[in-house]
Design goal:
The structure is a single chain. This protein is an alpha/beta fold and about 375 residues long. It folds into two domains: about 10-75 and about 105-175 and about 285-365, FAD/NAD(P)-binding domain, CATH 3.50.50.60; about 175-285, D-Amino Acid Oxidase, Chain A, domain 2, CATH 3.30.9.30. About 35% of the residues lie in helices and about 25% in strands. The strands form four sheets. A seven-stranded mixed β-sheet has the order 5-4-13-14-15-12-16, sandwiched between helices. Strands 7-2-1-11-17 form a five-stranded parallel β-sheet. The protein has a three-stranded antiparallel β-sheet with strand order 8-9-10, with no helix packed on it. The longest helix is centred in the last third of the chain and has 30 residues, at about 335-365. The relative contact order is 0.18. InterPro entries: FAD-bd, FAD/NAD-bd_sf, TetX_monooxygenase.
Length: about 375
């Protein structure tokens, strides 16, 4: 990189943005992360992630965080079960003793690990990006809510599905995939819901049939997160007169939708502790790319939003962030570094997004779970 230290902003404090900041700081390059959350624990970070050896774990190694990750990861979370709607177990994979290929970590734990690795003050909380103004020389003026404004030589959009940076690079916006998840869950499942805990096991479980699925994943501290997945309109609740703010109305609607399923599976909805959160799944077109623009780039969901059926989302975001930082360290010119990063990242993202689309078609399908079963046996 040139002797003049560039002014670098990362918009978004998710795994990809934070790993990028960590790698840059580890090599003496200053960077500022702007996040719209008011503080680190402002909102739940979601479920568990499998950190894959050649993507997420590779990024953590490059960031010098391998030991910290191993201390909080859950290798037992690699277990996977596939059932049909009668509760019949069709496929089970248990990790071998000592296997560390894809250990699980809660999103919240991962975020804390990454935040703790950064210099104090790196993340500026409560900063929602309003506009970016190109200044003609490759730099951009970023304006935030409240009137704060700063100029940067490189703005990295790591701000997720509804990125504020993406519109300056691409005309494409996420589209509804045709599948909705409704999230709920159990706390202290081993003690309070032992039958559910036994059904789910130590990792993840999916039961599927006729364009529907019930998906459950073990999180840390005894929590189990559950998703009811189905094809249909993203306005399904409105169309069926269901008030999404009424947990019992949502529960009743879901139980009706899954009528005829085994009672052990219905318990995932019937006995869930918490409320229900509606999560329509969105994705960017495949492939998604843009014309290189000096001073701007994207990583993670901002660049290649896909449904979770790739199993690659956070892993790819972290690899993106790591490789972008390494490219900035390796190349003398800022623009040259970003071009090299995009040249490698965009084809890789397209392959993963194609896999995610196939995975969704297999999992939530008329003949489910046969497509998912074929895929699991082919691995």
């Amino acid at each position: 990189m040139t002797s003049t230290t560039p002014r670098i902003a990362i918009i978004g404090g998710g795994p990809g943005g934070l790993i990028c900041a960590r790698v840059l700081q580890r090599h003496g390059i200053p960077v500022t992360v702007f996040d719209r959350d008011a503080y680190a624990e402002d909102r739940p970070q979601g479920g568990t992630l499998d950190m894959q050896e050649d993507t997420g774990q590779a990024a953590l190694r490059a960031a010098g965080l391998e030991e910290e990750f191993a201390a909080v990861a859950r290798p037992e979370g690699q277990e996977m079960r596939l059932l049909d709607h009668t509760g019949t177990l069709l496929f089970q994979r248990r990790p071998a003793p000592g296997e560390q290929r894809n250990p699980e970590i809660d999103r919240g734990e991962l975020r804390r690990l990454l935040l703790d690795s950064l210099a104090p003050g790196t993340v500026r909380w409560g900063r929602y990006l309003r506009t970016l103004h190109p200044l003609g020389d490759g730099s951009h003026k970023a304006e935030f809510d409240g009137g704060a404004a700063e100029t940067f030589d490189l703005v990295i959009g790591a701000d997720g599905a509804w990125s504020r940076v993406r519109p300056l690079l691409s005309e494409h916006a996420p589209h509804y995939s045709g599948v909705t998840f409704v999230e709920t869950g159990f706390g202290d499942a081993d003690t309070r819901h032992p039958a559910v805990a036994q059904l789910v096991g130590d990792g993840s479980m999916m039961a599927a049939h006729d364009n529907k699925a019930l998906i459950a994943q073990r999180n840390s501290r005894g929590r189990i997160r559950v998703y009811a997945a189905f094809r249909g309109s993203q306005d399904w609740a409105l169309e069926h007169g269901v008030n999404l703010t009424d947990p019992e109305a949502v529960r009743a609607a879901l139980l009706k939708r899954f009528t005829g399923w085994d009672d052990r599976l219905l318990a995932l909805l019937r006995d869930a502790d918490g409320g229900f959160v509606n999560r329509p799944l969105y994705a960017l077109p495949v492939p998604h790319s843009w014309t290189h623009t000096p001073g701007l780039t994207l990583l993670g969901d901002a660049a290649h939003l896909m449904t979770p059926f790739s199993g690659m989302g956070a892993n790819l975001a972290m690899l993106d962030g790591c490789e972008l930082a390494q490219s900035l360290l390796r190349h003398a010119e800022l623009d040259e570094a970003v071009r090299a990063y995009e040249t490698a990242m965009l084809p890789r993202a397209a392959r993963a997004a194609e896999g995610a689309a196939r995975g969704l078609d297999n999992a939530i399908a008329p003949d489910a779970p046969q497509g998912s079963l074929r895929h699991l046996h082919s691995r």
